[in-house]
Design goal:
It is a multi-pass membrane protein. Keywords: Membrane, Transmembrane, Transmembrane helix. This is Rhomboid-like protein 19. The protein has one domain: Rhomboid-like fold (Up-down Bundle). Helices cover 61% and strands 4% of the residues. Strand 1 and strand 2 form a beta hairpin. Helix 5 packs across helix 6 and helix 8 runs antiparallel to helix 9. The longest helix has 39 residues. The relative contact order is 0.12.
Amino acid sequence: MSSPQPPGGTMSIYTGFTRLCKGLAVVLIGGHIVVQILPTAVSYLALIPAKTIPFAWNLITAGYIEQSIIGVVISTVGLLFIGKLLEPIWGSREFLKFIFVVNFLTSVCVFITAISLYYVTRQELYLYLPISGFQGVLSGFLVGIKQIIPDQELSLLRIKAKWLPSLALLVSIVVSFFTTESASYLPTIIFGTYMGWIYLRYWQRKPETKLRGDPSDEFAFSTFFPEFLRRIIDPVATIFERMFCGRRSETPDQTRGYTLGGASLPGSDSIDASRRRERGARALEERLAERLAAAAARTDETRRDASENV
């Protein structure tokens, strides 16, 4: 008698990855293989601030080069599983655009920070440390999860999805106190989180409403922090918002939602955010239903096989 196979519900979790995510995973794995076979390639592909001026392309390539096996495993798994949730909701084109913009702007911010730290400290470490990895985009993905399904509770962590970016930042900062390589990943995670929020907050185009960004209060910058800190964060965030992104109140028809006689309709600011969360919740429910159905079908098949063998 052949031994019965375990139910297939668990295996269904590891299927359904999008073609785009699979292609990007191949790029990450291929980049890692290249730098392992040709270590000198790191000098041309990773972000080395002292060499960025002649090798400006490393502002783009650095995000897709993982130098360690742990890094490539985390980045590939994160891309496949998070991309499976985000890409169907955003669309492949918007998903790819998000990756490119967040990766590039994160590299630019890391480059400027490294140059600034060098002039302040005069330590050449900041100029010649090769910085690379997909962690900046992964941090931006967590912001996307926060936006789409903020109140979805994660059973493994016992927290709501809206706290994932903040938790990832907190853990990274804590770990940085116990490692000597924090300069190679911490700035990327910090700027990746912020650039992901900037893109989704102000720039992401939504064809169904012809609006840009997400101006809802539930996605404000202060929501990354505990409640007792928000009264301090909000005024500071407003100053930076007006400096870098302009005044939203000057264009209420484009950013604040629907208007009537020049005045914003009550609750219109959160209409688009609510629709996005509903789409995210629907997509999540559909995936869970598919997995449960597949698990039930495979369980029944296993039982039939077992009964036939008996």
